[in-house]
Amino acid sequence: MLLNSLCFLSGTLLVQQLAVLPDIKWLIALAIIVVVLAALHYWRLLFLFAGVLWALVFAMAQLADQLPEAYEGIEILIQGVIGDLPEQDEKQARFDFITRDGVYAGNLPGASSAITRDGVHPLSQSATGTANGSFKLPSKLRLSWYYPDQTLKASQQWSFTVKLKRPHGSLNPGGFDYERWLFTEGVGATGYVRPSPAPVLLGSQSAWTSIDVWRQLISDKLSVSQLDVNSRALIKALTIGDGNSIDQRHWEVFRSTGTTHLMVISGSHIALVAGLVYWLVLKCWAWTGLLRWSPQMVAAWSALLVGIIYAGLAGFSVPTQRAVIMLAIGMIAIILQRNHRPFHTLAVAMLAVLLWDPLAVLSPGFWLSFIAVGLIVYVLAGRLGALKPFWSAIKINWATSLGLSPLLLLFFQQVSIISPLANLLAVPLISLVLVPLALVAVGVLSISATLAAPLLLVLDYLLRGIMWLLETMAALPNATINHAQPSYWALLFAVLGILLLLAPKGIPGRWLGLVMFLPLVFTEPKQRDAGEFELTLLDVGQGLSAVIETAHHQLVFDTGAKFSAESDMGRSVLLPFLRSQGIDKIDTLIVSHGDNDHIGGAASLLSNMPTEQVLTSVPQKLSDFAPQPCAAGQTWQWDEVTFSMLSPNHEYASDNDNSCVLMVTGKHGAALLTGDIEANAESWLVEHYGEKLQAKVMVAPHHGSKTSSTMQFLQTVKPEIILIPAGYRNQFGHPHAGVLQRYQQSGISWLNSADSGAIDVKLAKTGTSVSSMRQINSHYWNAK
Predict the structure, then answer these.
(1) How crowded is residue 130: how many other Cβ atoms within 10 Å of its Cβ?
(2) Rounded to 5 degrees, what are φ and ψ at 663?
(3) For residue range 92-102, what is the model confidence (pLDDT) as tens digits?
(4) What is the CA radius of gyration of the chain?
(5) Cα(413)–Cα(410) distance, rounded to whole angstroms?
(6) pLDDT tier at 709 (50, 70, 90 boundaries)?
(7) Element (H, E) at 556
(8) HSE (CB half, 13 Å, CA atoms) of 538?
(9) Phi, psi for 481 (deg, rounded to 5)
């Protein structure tokens, strides 16, 4: 069974590597192949091709549930229900919305006024019965409501007028693939609520039909409790899977100590709670002497029921669905009194998860959870001599910490050195004490706040204590290691090394496993000769951030926008990119000017990565980091590449024109980074530098706005290619059509980060090469 499940997994994985899904005829061919293989009893190949077929069918159905491109940016009246606990503050609310039907409100040719959930326009039926201009409204939307005047709650039924767009997000090396996340979550469109016509609350689902009503009730009761705000956020995360209230500082502590999995409802929590219930029921039922049903069977049913209820409190999120399926397979084996071998049970559970959701392979949690369980089985099952519980816990902790480290480097480019010790202390306290106590406390809280108060007080003290411990450990020097993403061949060697290191004692040469780890540790850095440099324009939406690398130095130009105290492009895009490239320090950071879409991520970047020098036109806004003003005439050289600051020379009335303008000149060409300068600054640069402005590559001034990229400036710079940093369907209309027309008239090629993702330009002795993330690393779920 194990090999069959691995073959099915391989088939599912093959589909996820595709840039474009095949058409329907390939599905028919695959279905025929599957039937033939089944008839011939070629089981391994059958499972492989069945995995491919099932993953393709599932992916096609998911893509079919996305918003048609023609309906982007138009007002649509929709009705539905809030599908999860919303995130809300005074500025905005974000929530999932499960649609019921939609009514088109606008002037789209060929569309009638009414649109049902299935996309049928009842008033536009032709003589043949087809619907003219019909479209399918996605079943699940991700919506934002700016400055909401009402409090949103899970399971409320609303009527909204919205503007939608297809799933789209930033795409950068080492960064979070938002489009993939939306795809795996089944979100067919994102958008925002229009204030007019006013949203209408239609009602709310019954507590008997929606678990989210109970989750909202628990959340509301905890919100008005007298708990410390941080303890309240952690209790919500541990009991109802709502981690939205945990602040960024605490998430950093959990990442540094490798305990993130303990602070949300994960598979380990469900397994441990179910295991605790199984043990208690087994002992109690055996004590009663009622043997009509065996203690094992009663304990298994009880554990399964509790696991399902706990997953329901987490809203049946994708990770908890996987955990419940794995739990169900194990408990059913006990109920049916099957002689279940551990790896056999694990293989059946993996197959069941993939049948339920083949897109699970796109989640790091899938790999981390199954491999963690596999490692535990590998180091404990079938070994001679029974270890005592304490030493078993030590062995499990050592095995999972070591065994999961290559995957953590692959997925997150970060490994916590203190994770083994932190988990050894935190796992029993959180999983066996805090989680059961928190579940009992919220259960009592649903009945009486007075009775729950003592339990919540104990929880508060315990949570403060564990947070003090984790914060102390996270503050230790070198608590975490950041490392470039390993290659797949290095990962393969590391996996083989892990199996050898964790093999039974009688296996000779186990120490060679350490040698097999060496390719993972000593990754080969990018090789650049003197005079060569690489420019990467990162995809930060409507903003600017670029990284320039020479043979031994790194410069960052602007840092993208800041959206809230918890979210900015420095944290979500820049830092992951730098770590994925193996960069652990910045030689110079230039912040061109003070607009949020350029300076927003600076604080996060400077707080998390050593930076030798900061240059900016607004030093007062970065006073905590000892910046120096940028000014025309500043120049320096790294690895035979010259960096020259061309502007500002004097103060303009416009902040945009005061942007730092940088020229980077290597042996094989130059690049011009212009910030947000407009016509006045462009004119001054042409007048004072003339032909010295010529550059092969230019970052478009002011995102390609109509007030920049004058014809005189373009004719002076004479770029071969222009990189446009702009957001997808941004509200400013960047880049402006007139600007693109000037580029075309001048014979200049251009790439837009909104369409291309991160754009990489290498100016080397082999020539100028240009590539983009959506060109070389795009998958079928990514916007084209």
Answers:
(1) 10
(2) -110, 130
(3) 999 999 998 54
(4) 29
(5) 6
(6) very high
(7) strand 554-557
(8) 30
(9) -120, 125
